Amino acid sequence: MKTALITGSTSGIGKATAELLAKQGYRLILCGRRTEVLEQLKTELSQLTETFSLRFDQRNFNEVETAIQSLPENWKNIDVLINNAGNAHGLDCLCDGSIEDWDAMMDGNVKGLLYVSKMIIPGMRERKAGHIVNISSVAARQTYANGVVYCASKKAVDVISEGMRLELTEFGIKVTNIQPGAVETDFSKIRFKGDEERAKTVYAGYDALKAEDIADAIAYCVNAPKHVTISDLTIYPSAQSEPRTIHRSM
């Protein structure tokens, strides 16, 4: 039975992926910041598979290191790492952007991914096996106005994924970079500081992707035959032709 560690597992893509992999028989290490939600998810998925939970803020390396080092011996061999946790904050031009928002995006989307990966990769290298899935975005493919820092953070995920592949393939470690288009989760609600009405407009007039769609793609990648690596995968809803263009019915 394989063990998968999923960051940002308490909502959206992370939660959908955890639910799907649990049904497929993976042991799960569920990671997040919200203790109550994390424990509730652990209780639910424990009906399907073995689960373990780690609470940490991946923007803080000390928390990441302490949490992962605290894993019991029988949970330390991680076969699949899904770097899902990330965020978008604000939709302002650079001149009006919030330093706090910039730090949150760069620390969460880039440094956090690096921190978690740094703790997991040595074990994979030693065992000469493993699979790392990084969740990027179509924002990495085309920068858009008022989202420059978010786009830059996701472009960094693309570059990190490529670098990981160059460094880790010889050790039998697969690396997959997934770029989702518009996915209807809490993403826009967080970006707009809890403004639910504004967030709804992002997904109005077309069928956006669901978290389960990305979970399906992740499961396909991690379950591919040993000789197959899905290196990069871009997923749009049918109504989206490129990062900035969505064809709406209204």
TrEMBL record:
Signal peptide: none
Keyword vocabulary terms for this entry: Oxidoreductase
Electron transport in keyword set: no
Keyword Oxidoreductase tagged: yes
InterPro entries assigned: NAD(P)-bd_dom_sf, Sc_DH/Rdtase_CS, SDR_fam
Pfam families to which the protein is assigned, alphabetical: adh_short
Stretches that traverse the bilayer: none
Family statement drawn from the similarity comment of this UniProt entry: Belongs to the short-chain dehydrogenases/reductases (SDR) family.
The protein's name: SDR family NAD(P)-dependent oxidoreductase
